[in-house]
Structures are given as C-alpha cells and as structure tokens.
Amino acid sequence: MAGSTFGTLFTVTSWGESHGRGIGAVIDGCPAGLPLCEEDIQRYLNRRRPGQSAYTTGRREKDLVTILSGVFDGRTTGTPVSLLVPNEDQHSSDYDKLYDIYRPGHADYTFDAKYGFRDHRGGGRSSGRETIARVAAGAVAMKALASLGVTVRAYASAIGPVKADPAVFDPDETGRNPFCLPDADAALRAEAFVRECMARGDSAGGIIECVADCLPAGLGQPVFDKLDACLGRAILSIGAVKGVEIGDGFAAAAATGLTNNDAFVNRKGMIAKKTNHSGGILGGISDGSRLILRAAIKPTPSIGAVQETVSRQGEAIQLSIHGRHDPLIVPRAVVVVEAMTAITLFDLLLQNMTCRMEYLEQIYKK
Amino acid sequence: MAGSTFGTLFTVTSWGESHGRGIGAVIDGCPAGLPLCEEDIQRYLNRRRPGQSAYTTGRREKDLVTILSGVFDGRTTGTPVSLLVPNEDQHSSDYDKLYDIYRPGHADYTFDAKYGFRDHRGGGRSSGRETIARVAAGAVAMKALASLGVTVRAYASAIGPVKADPAVFDPDETGRNPFCLPDADAALRAEAFVRECMARGDSAGGIIECVADCLPAGLGQPVFDKLDACLGRAILSIGAVKGVEIGDGFAAAAATGLTNNDAFVNRKGMIAKKTNHSGGILGGISDGSRLILRAAIKPTPSIGAVQETVSRQGEAIQLSIHGRHDPLIVPRAVVVVEAMTAITLFDLLLQNMTCRMEYLEQIYKK
Amino acid sequence: MAGSTFGTLFTVTSWGESHGRGIGAVIDGCPAGLPLCEEDIQRYLNRRRPGQSAYTTGRREKDLVTILSGVFDGRTTGTPVSLLVPNEDQHSSDYDKLYDIYRPGHADYTFDAKYGFRDHRGGGRSSGRETIARVAAGAVAMKALASLGVTVRAYASAIGPVKADPAVFDPDETGRNPFCLPDADAALRAEAFVRECMARGDSAGGIIECVADCLPAGLGQPVFDKLDACLGRAILSIGAVKGVEIGDGFAAAAATGLTNNDAFVNRKGMIAKKTNHSGGILGGISDGSRLILRAAIKPTPSIGAVQETVSRQGEAIQLSIHGRHDPLIVPRAVVVVEAMTAITLFDLLLQNMTCRMEYLEQIYKK
Amino acid sequence: MAGSTFGTLFTVTSWGESHGRGIGAVIDGCPAGLPLCEEDIQRYLNRRRPGQSAYTTGRREKDLVTILSGVFDGRTTGTPVSLLVPNEDQHSSDYDKLYDIYRPGHADYTFDAKYGFRDHRGGGRSSGRETIARVAAGAVAMKALASLGVTVRAYASAIGPVKADPAVFDPDETGRNPFCLPDADAALRAEAFVRECMARGDSAGGIIECVADCLPAGLGQPVFDKLDACLGRAILSIGAVKGVEIGDGFAAAAATGLTNNDAFVNRKGMIAKKTNHSGGILGGISDGSRLILRAAIKPTPSIGAVQETVSRQGEAIQLSIHGRHDPLIVPRAVVVVEAMTAITLFDLLLQNMTCRMEYLEQIYKK
Predict the structure, then answer these.
(1) Across the A/C interface, how many CB contacts are shorter than 8 Å?
(2) Total-model pTM
(3) CB atoms < 10 A from the CB of C346, how many?
(4) Residues of B in Cβ contact (< 8 Å) with C356
C-alpha cells in the first residue's frame, strides 16, 4: 500500500489533491446500525473550515460533504461509507510561478525526489486540504465512540511560546478565542504574539492537547500496536506535526520512578490510579483513566518574508510567498488531531472485541 | 492482527514471554542475497544484554541467537528468517508473590483488564525481554541498510535531568561511559544522579537520540505512512517510551516560520538544505539530509522504595520491589531505538522501489 | 478491514451500491509516470455495459467514468487515483416488493443475517454493478502491464453445457458472437441453449478462461501468497463464481505424474517447458510460460419462472422475478475476470521488485 | 509482506525449510482463554505424518511439536503462540545431485528465476514439510471452532480417476482405508490404480472434499473477502492444489437457474434451504447450511520413471527421481485442507464480531 489507508478494522482510505476535483474518504469496516447523516460530519468539517478568524487563511471554501454510499434509512449498512467534498474557490494560477520552485519547509522537493514530478497546484496531495478526509472520517468514528460513551476533545495548549496555564483550564473558553486555548489570558498573549509574526510576514506554531474520557481499560495491543504507538503514528501522520507525547511525555524522561509511577487505589470497589502521569496508558494498553496526548505543530512554512531557496534546476532564488495562507494552522488543526485520535481509538475498540474467547461466546452462543 | 507483526514489506513477527521457553522473531520479506550469519545479529544483542555496568540489572543472560531458517550458503534466500533466543537464568519464583499484585507503572493491571488473566512471571509478554526480537530483527535491517550505504546510530542525549551538550558531541565517547552519552562531562553528572536515585531505591529515565545518514531522498509515503508517522509508531511501540520527536520537535512549536524553515541551496550541483530543523523529513518524505529523532524514556517502574498499590482483589498494599531490575534502562534501550529505526527505514526503502514506473522498467525490461 | 480493499501494493478500494449515488474505486500504490486518461478506462467499462445483445439485461446505463484524483498532466502522480461512475437509470421502485423477500440464489438472506438489515434496492452492495469498480481499476492495471509487455485476455470457454472446442480457437471470433466464445460453431449451439432457457423463464451459466502472456518468471510468493492463491482469491471474489482452476485444474487430479509433469527444455538458450499442464505456475511462482485459469460462473439467480421462497418473517412465497435481468451473465463477466487477473498480476509484479538485494542496488546505487 | 503470513485477525506466520533446523508457525490474534496443550496439536500432525501406509513416503519423522509461547496455566494468553517442529531424519545428500537440476513439476526453476538461487535440499521452502506449520496452526483454529460448536472435516472424494460414490458416503470408512475415501468399494479400486502407477514409477493425484457444519450465518465479507474467496486463497495456497470449487462448483456452470437455485423454506421457525447447490455460501457470506468445498490435487511430481529436463545451465538431462517420495499425496493432504479451512473460518468468525454496533454494545456496555 502507498500509505493512503489508515486503520486495521475501521479503515479510512483518503484521496484527493488541493486543486483537483475534490477530496474524499472511503471508510470500510464501520459496523452496521450506526445512525449517520451528512450533518453529523459537516459540523466537524466546519470546525476546520478556513476563514473563521483573522489568523487563518482568507479562502472561502464551504467544504460541503456528501455521503455517496454505505448509509441506508439513516443508518450505516456495514458496507463502505464513501464521502466526497468537492473542491472550489481554487486559484490555481496563484501557483504557476511555483511550478519549479522548491518552497522551504514544504514537500515540493521531496515529492519530486520520490516521484520524478508532482502536481504543484496548491501543494497537490501534500496540501492541508488532505485533512478534510481525516476530519470527515473522524466524525464517523466520533459518533460511534459517543454511542459507547467515549468522548474525545482537543484544544491548543500553546501558541508559539505562549502556554496555557493548566491550573486555569476552562473548556468553554476554547470556543471563545480564535486559538482554541482553554485559558483566556493566554489567548490574549497568543494574539499579541501572532500579530507580531504576521506583521513581519512570519508565521507561528503551537501545541495541541487531546484527551479522551470513559475509554474502557484494555485497548491497545501489547507489542507493536500499543495504544501509544497507534496514536503516535496517527498524530505524526498529520502534516505539520513534529512531535507527540503521551501523559507526562518528555517531562517523564527527567522524572524518577518514585515521582512518575501512578499508585493504584481502590475507588469504591473499582481499581483506579491516584495520579495520571502515564496519560491513561500502561504497557501500551488503556488503563481506564483519562487518555492524554500532545502534538507539536511547526510554524506554517508559507511566509511572506523573503527566504532563500532554489529552483528545480538548482538556481538560487529569493522567494516571498504571497497568496492566502494561514499564519497559524493550530486552531484549524485541533479538530484534525481530535479526528485522528477518534479513528485510532475506535479501530482499537473494534480490535479488542476478539481478545477473549468469552466475548466470542457472548455473541455466537445464543 | 494482534499487533505482534511490524512492517509492510520487511515484516517482523515477534513472540515470547520473559519466563517462557524463549524469545523469537520471524522476518518475512528480507530480499534474497544478503550475506548473513549469527554473529551479525549477536553483536547487536550483546549491546542490550544485561549486566554490563553497575547501573543495569545483574541478571546474567547470554541471549545467544540461532538462525533457524531462511539462510543458505551464508546468504538470505528470500524466505522467512526465523530467529530464536532461548530463555535462561529465570528466577520465576521471584515473581510468585506478585501473582495478584498490580505493580505501579507496569502492565499487570492492563493485561488483566484486557485478557482476563496473565502470565505474571517476569512481566510475561510485557517484559523488556520482548525487545530481544526487535534487536535481532533490527540487526538484519541494519546489515541490509549498510549494504546500500545507509547508517543508523543511537545514543543517550539525556539521563534524567542531565543533558548532553550538543556542542561537545563525541561519538567515540558513547562507547566509553556506561550511559552511552556522547559527552564525558555529562556522563559524570549522570553517574552522580543515578547513584543518588539508586541510594533511595529510586530509578531514572532519559532521552535517546537516533540519527541516520546517507538515506536516499524520497522515503516515506505522503499521507498516513509518512516517514515521521512510521518512525513514531516504531519508537512509541518500545515499552518505556512516552514521547517521540523529529528534528527540532517540540521546540519547533515555539519557533516561527522564519527560524524553522530550512533554506534550500545548491551544493556542488546537488540540492541540499542550509540547516536541518526538519530532521531530514519534509512532507513525510526523507529529504536527503540527516534523519534525526528523539525518544523520551520514562524511569524504570520497578523500584525498591515503598509504593502504594492494590491487589487484584482491590486490597491496599505497601509494595517494595526487590529482585534484579535496571535502575536505568536507557543504556540498554539505545540499541532498541536503533533497531526499530533501522527496521522502519529498510521497510520504507523496499516500499519505495515501486513508486515510479521507470523503476519497474529498469528491473523488468532487460 | 471489511473486505473492500484488494491487493498488497497496488490496492483497490471499492465502494457503492446499485441504487445509491454511484460506484467508485480508489487505487492506491499505482506507480508515478503511467500515462492515463478516462478513455483508457472507459473502453473496459463499455465491455461490461449492459444492453449490448439480446442475452443481457435491457438496462441502458452509460457508466461513464471520471478520474477525480491522482493524474496530472496525463500521467499518474503516485497518489491515489479515485474513480467515480455515477448511477443512473435506476428503477428502485421495481424492488419495493422485494423489501422483505429472500430471493433464492441471492445475498438477501445472508446480508440480513450478517448486518441485521440491508439496502435491498437492486441488490445493494451485492449487485453486479459492484464489478464496475473492479473493471475500472483493472483497466489501470492492464495499462501498466501493457507498458511492461504483459497482456491479459479472457473469453468464454463454455456457455451452459456447450463447450468451445480448443482445437478451433479463434481469438477474433470472441468479438463477433454475443457470448465471447472463440468458436463460431459453439456460439450457434450456445445461442440455441440460451434461447431455450429464456423461453421458460430460466437462466444459464458458463466458464470463462483467462490467459496472460509475456509474464516474467518469478511472480508469486512461495507459501500463502502463491500466484495461484492470489488469483484464486481474486476470481472467487467475483459474485457468481463457484470454482476456479489453474492449467489442467480438476483434470490434473485424474492424471498421473508422467502425463501431468511438463518437461523442461532448452529453447534457443532459454529454459522453457515442452507442455503447459501447470498453466504457467510452478510452486506458486510464474514459470514464464502462458498463465491459464478458468472460472465457473453459476446461472443468474434472478429468473422469471416461479420459485419457492420465504419472506423475512418466514412466510412461504411463490416468487417470479420480473424486471431487467441478464439471462446469462457470462459475456459481461469476461472483462471482470480479465480485470481481477490484471490487478493481481500487477500487484505481484510490484511485490517482486523487492525479492532480491541486487534489485535494490540497481535502483539505489546510482 | 512476502506471503508467509495468512489471515487478518487470526494470523499464522509460517517459516522453515525441509532440511533446515525445523518448521514453525507463529499464531497471533488467538483470543485469550482457549484451553490448549501440545497434544491438541500433535494429533493433527500425526495425521499428516509420513510412513502410515504403503502409498506414502517411507520417511520416519516423528514431527513432535513444542509450544514455545502464548500458553500459561493451560490456556492461551492472547499473545503469540509460537510452535516448533524440529527437522530430523534428513538425507540431505540425497539431494546433492539435484543441486543444479530442474525437476519437472517442482519449484526448482521458479525459485531460481525469482531469487537467483535456492536452498535445493529436500525442496527447501517449497517442500511439503511446509504444511506442518499449517496443520499445527489449524489444530488451534479447530479447537477454537469446536468450542463454538463448529466442526470441519475433510476426506478424499477421488483418487486419480476413481471417484467415491456420494450415495454410499460412510464417514467411518475414511479412517479405515489408506486413502481417506468414504466409500470402501472405491478404496479398493483406488488401491488397484495407485499400485499400477507405482509399478511403472508413476504417481497419482485426486480430489479432497471438506465440509463444515454448524457455522453461523453471516461469515464472510461482501466484496473482496467473500467467504469463497478467502477459502479459495487458503486452499490454492497448498502446494499441489490446481483447482477449488464451492458447492456444485464447475457443475453449476452447466446448470440453469431453475436447477441451481436453492429454495428457502421455513424449518420449524428457522429460515433454511431445501437444497444446497450453493455449498453454504450466498453472496460470499455463509448461509447457515453445510459449507462444502473441493480441492483438485495434482499427481506427485517426483517420479521414478525417466523424464526429460534440463540443468541450471540448460543442458538436456534424463532424470529418474529415486528417494523417499509419496506416490500419492492425497491422504496426507486431507488434514492440510481441513487445517486451512479451519484457519479461514475462525479468522472470519473473529472479523464478524465487529460487523454490528449492537455487538459492540453487548461487550462494552456492561
């Protein structure tokens, strides 16, 4: 496979380029009987849609989704769910002059190195528009998870060097500021930082945190398909992500066993943990406490300020990228992190259905 | 699949428990014609073998590997290479009292939650001994990579809070101190820190850095199987890893486009990069510069100091773990990170063989 | 996976129902640089299109294909090729009365048994229209094979009890009679047989033979992914196929070693075989001679004559199926067998690219 | 993957050569809690063991299996079950003279064509000994199926041109004659035929039939992973198989809709079928009636009579193969067909666990 399919049992096949006919996803392995309509998906797509603040691109795509197959009488049928989002509002000619220029921080050079040529219009397959397929498929996973009581939620925990204060975490605040920060004060400082970047034709990055609650203990496979490994692959497969960590993550490397171990306790007859440095995963398997992960998002590589680069032919070039780019991709990437997390969790929930003979007996011995 | 197979074309299937008959790996998809003997593998296994310093477990396993299949006349035949490392020097009775106790930071509870029961002896399948399969298979990948000119090398970049200074990087030093640190001064400070931890029955973690050189540009698939995503999964599937980052990683989240973008330059007719913040990957595809990744290793959860926990039945317990445990796993994990990186890179090298019609013509149109 | 993706490196994901929005295929892993346009695909779709003779359904679908992604400047880019054929000319109301009736020989009952309910309109996902995805993807595989000199061709070798005489094999004749038989005399007898069936509201089946020429020796993997096993899965995954055989097939079971073994000979310096009982495969690997397979196609289950059956509720019913059904599906299935064979062969050609270290050296050591 | 792993959720990885250290299988994805011991597996291996009649090879291998991992306290733990059968009684020197000779009907030439060289001793990886891995893994699948009430049973339905009469089917008879035929009279005629073949240094083939009872309706996936397709791949992956058919198979091609359709009936409140031409599968999904398949086995290619062939260098050679070969492989292949059927069915049973949201609710909403 050339890497456009994700998942083992709940599989998502993504296709499409920025300036082609559209972007789509085919979900195979969605269990039958899940209530599903286009609106269930559209509301997630709306969260990644551009043009919602001064800090994202001014493009005006509606990104309307159509369900082409796999749903009948308002419920999934167990057959592939094909989703289509047509492209529109393309300014392909904006890219004509980039035809043989390698933009720093972009995949232009590596696509040419791999395939010998590329669809250069709007970044082609490496465009951020590719995440539409992820968000659409993630919405289906999210609906399925919700029906089992599992919730997944992401937000920004840092914009550039500005970090949200965990002590003032306010979930409602994430919907009020344009950065999805759960800390109103940090949002103000983030705004100042991003405006500064924009003023000099520069761009910013940040950190997205994602948590899942009410996940059953037992998800993930002990060795190569550990829950952390599956999540790591999912999150690092998102365009601008340069790092991922679970629970205390890199901070755990500096801790000691005494401070990092989470003591088990008996909470009203249920085994629980006193702390959650592990981020809800032990030995690669969910432990029933909150799942916590963080993704490092690099600053948008398309910037207006002048950069050095070369053409395909190796000529030195002074490049200043104008057009409609996001000075900060973090707020639009929040729902993408959420989507990839949901897809991964639902796939592992399905995989877990066959881990004990007694589960088979429950279903087959009626 | 239950997650014991890794890879798409160069696949490694791992099996075995800490106190069972042995640990093994079956490699499928290794191309025919690679010179291979047991010594090629043994020297990697020797690097992860316990008992090599005062800072690792005192167990005395020889961990001798046997090639059971797939090699004839000193070369791989293209059929599965089955590798076996028998277990020995087990003190299973050490674990009798842990039969129904959930050790903090370990997978005891999650295995029970998933499967209903577990092989508790020595951690069973979740033991660090499982990494023998990875190192053995990694040695084969490393040999294949070397024959194509690619090298992979890992070392510690931090032990607990002690960080190696990148400015004094000395590759030879990594073999001289017991921590695999490339900085002799940092090694002295690490020693002090680890001794302190040991004195109070505590343990330490650290960071492992891995670099690959002479990798062709073009490896990795654009969307879900990005080179970073594949590496992320590989590294996060190692027991104690809590985070992974590529290039500048989490630091990139605080940078701006102007400082984080790597300018392309023409270096003697070859397209190269002036800096390498990206760690050798752009758009999920190798860019021909040095590949750089880092893994955060949590402190060993087995500690002598008293911890709170519960039994399987939910009774509160004061636990002090005695036995032969590593106060610091980082030095032995270095070769594991190297192995998983090598397996991932060689698999992607194989996958890349089919990305252009012209490659097919080169092989088939003779 | 829920079985809608076929292939290891050249993968085809199929989606769509008979009376939904359309039928589609996403091809992932097609190498970059293959010249491809819609007409390349359309001419294969035209061969399976209904309404081309008195012996197939009178439906008038144009089945026009659109390439939605993966092709730029007339060549494949290495990214997913998404193909769409919208549905039209549906008479969904024809199926209203079949809502809770289980048609004999159809998948109505088994879909309900599996999923709890089904899209009953036009057979839903189990409709013959699903093969549009296979034929469209097969056209791409065929184009790629052709560029390497490999040809694949199928035709009918029997219609009901009427068998083509191998001694009078005339390739041009397959395009002249409505049954794709390579024997004009057999075609006349087939016509009489099928007319007889139609007169009593009955239907017919037959056998399709498929051959591939100029296939390199070495394709197929020794154990589970033998060339015959891969072809067997491919062909038996086509709706009405009840058997598949390679070379002499079932006749070989009655032969002896002396008559069934193919002697090797030296033909102008090349190793060849004197006979081809094996059908071009030895030990699961192509031997360089002509590949030969045959598929048994059952008679169309939808018939006008009265049949006994039951409703979903278990009531006995006398059923006579009217509507637009093929009394004989064989002529339209010929191109489907060709397509599945081509997809399988091209996938194995790709897989074979990594079977020797020397091939890697040829591509990477430049 | 290079084709040594079979299955999606219950996966079997096979390794080993005829004259190497041994043959083995790693089963991943076996649910936890299945009672399992070596004797469960040994009794299946004993059925394929050579030397049990005058009509099979005189080799005296004990083929004793050891469980190396994945079983604790007599039950599977959910982790990989590694099985090992060491090789013994090898006469490698028997094969010295075959080093550069291409035996007709064998994989010698195709292995060289694929890999450039081969382990020629005893057929290497293409030896019939490879089926030990299948039988061992099949025994585990069989045990799991049995615990859910499903039974799988194979026998010979033809030896060379001698066919068992379905009307006199006697299951006990299959254990009484050396051919596994369920018809004593046919067994006598088969004996005469095989003796005749042996007298002239020739060999024989035959047909193996396999049936499964009490299979739940609903197994198999609608499109590419149809139950028939999965079984077809499984059976055609066995060395000497040249054809496979389901239910009426090739005979269905000559039938008509009226005679081939199976009428549904209401049998004591359960939906059943009046006949079973379909062999228990409709639309690729099990229909709850008996599953029936047949495999065509070619005559053993190793024969004592003189054959023409060539050497690796292309020299013409007169070859007469002496050594310990089976004049008839059918009786020993019966348990292999049974094993591959069981593995396929159990894998699809696992896959089916996730086809409905209500199954997930049954397991997770407690």
Answers:
(1) 161
(2) 0.97
(3) 29
(4) 31-33, 78
Backbone angles phi, psi at B360, to 5 degrees: -60, -45
Asked if residues D340 and D237 have their Cβ atoms less than 8 Å apart, the reply is: yes
Give the helix/strand (H/E) hosting A195. Answer: helix A184-199
Q: How many residues does chain B have?
A: 366
Per-residue pLDDT of chain A (366 residues), as tens digits, is: 689 999 999 999 999 999 999 999 999 999 999 999 999 999 999 998 877 788 877 777 789 999 999 999 999 999 999 999 999 866 667 777 888 999 999 999 999 999 999 998 888 999 999 999 999 999 999 999 999 999 999 999 999 999 999 999 999 999 999 999 999 999 999 999 999 999 999 999 999 999 999 999 999 999 999 999 999 999 999 999 999 999 999 999 999 999 999 999 999 999 999 999 999 999 999 999 999 999 999 999 999 999 999 999 999 999 999 876 889 999 999 999 999 999 999 999 999 999 999 999 999 986
Distances B314 to A216, A298, B24, B115, C222 between C-alpha atoms, Å = 18, 45, 35, 18, 52
Give the span between the Cα atoms of D324 and D334, in whole angstroms.
Answer: 20
Interface contact flag, D114 C241, Cβ < 8 Å? no
Interface ipTM: 0.97
Q: What are phi and psi for residue C187, nearest 5 degrees?
A: -60, -40
Q: In terms of C-beta density within 10 A (0-12 exposed, 13-18 middle, 19 or more buried), how is residue C263 classed?
A: middle
Both tokens of D346, joined, read 């159990």
Nearest to A72 by CA among D315, C111, C200: C111
Q: How far is A223 from chain C (nearest CA, A)?
A: 20
Task: Return the amino acid letter for A319.
Answer: L
In this structure, what token pair is assigned to residue B117?
A: 């029961």
Task: Tell whether C358 is within 8 A of chain D (Cβ).
Answer: yes
In the block, which residue shows the tokens 């491809």? C36
List the one residue out of C169, C184, C58, C131 whose CA is nearest residue C338. C131
Of B159, B220, B249, B206, which Cα lies nearest the Cα of B355? B220
Structure tokens at C281: 């495969």
Name residue C133's amino acid: A
The closest CB to that of C28, out of A13, A115, A117, belongs to A13
Cα A239 to Cα A128: distance, rounded to the nearest angstrom = 7
Rg (alpha carbons) of chain B, rounded to whole number: 21
Q: How far is CA D50 from the centre of its chain?
A: 16
Q: Are A233 and B232 in contact (CB under 8 A)?
A: yes
Q: Residue C77: left (phi > 0), alpha (psi -120 to 50), or beta?
A: alpha
Do B137 and B131 contact (CB within 8 A), yes or no? no
* DSSP characters over D156-225: EEEETTEE--GGG--GGGGGTSTT--S-HHHHHHHHHHHHHHHHTT--B-EEEEEEEESPPTT-S-SSTT
* Cα torsion A343, A344, A347, A352: sign: negative
Q: pLDDT for D115-165, tens place per residue?
A: 999 998 888 999 999 999 999 999 999 999 999 999 999 999 999 999 999
**Amino acid type, C57:** T
In B183-275, beta strands by DSSP E: 206-213, 241-246, 264-267, 270-273
**Chain centre distance of CA A292:** 14
The answer to whether C139 and C85 are in contact (CB under 8 A) is: no
Name C159's bridge partners. Answer: C162, C206
From residue A35, how far is each of A42, A75, A133 by CA, in Å? Answer: 15, 4, 20
- Chain B 115-134, CB below 8 Å of chain D: which residues? 115-119, 124-125
B203 close to A257: Cβ distance less than 8 angstroms: yes
Tell me if chain C has a CB within 8 Å of the CB of A52: no
Q: Is C99 on the interface with A (CB under 8 A)?
A: no
C-alpha pair distances (Å), A291 with each of A130, A159, A216, A246: 26, 22, 11, 8
